[in-house]
Design brief:
There is one protein chain. The relative contact order is 0.27. This protein has a five-stranded antiparallel β-sheet with strand order 3-2-1-4-5. It has one domain. It has one helix and five strands. By secondary structure, it is mostly beta strands. The protein is globular and about 30 Å long. This is Cold-shock protein. It comes from Catellatospora methionotrophica.
């Protein structure tokens, strides 16, 4: 699943995304930290990775494995 960064707070490392269908999704520090990224910019495309129960595990750049 992919979306676009709508908000990002570099201090708390949390933010929100808009999925392609317009649905907002919040992400927490753990999902951002799992990405290995240092920051996100508004409007940046990201890939969301979920576990079997649907919990957001990681926010990643689409081209990164």
């Amino acid at each position: 699943m992919q979306g676009t960064v709508a908000t990002f707070d570099s201090e708390t490392r949390t933010g929100s995304l808009l999925l392609d269908d317009g649905t907002p999704v919040a992400f927490d520090r753990a999902a951002f930290d799992a990405s290995g990224l240092r920051l996100l910019r508004l409007g940046q495309r990201v890939r969301l990775e979920h576990d079997a129960e649907g919990r957001l595990l990681r926010v990643a750049i689409p081209t990164m494995p």
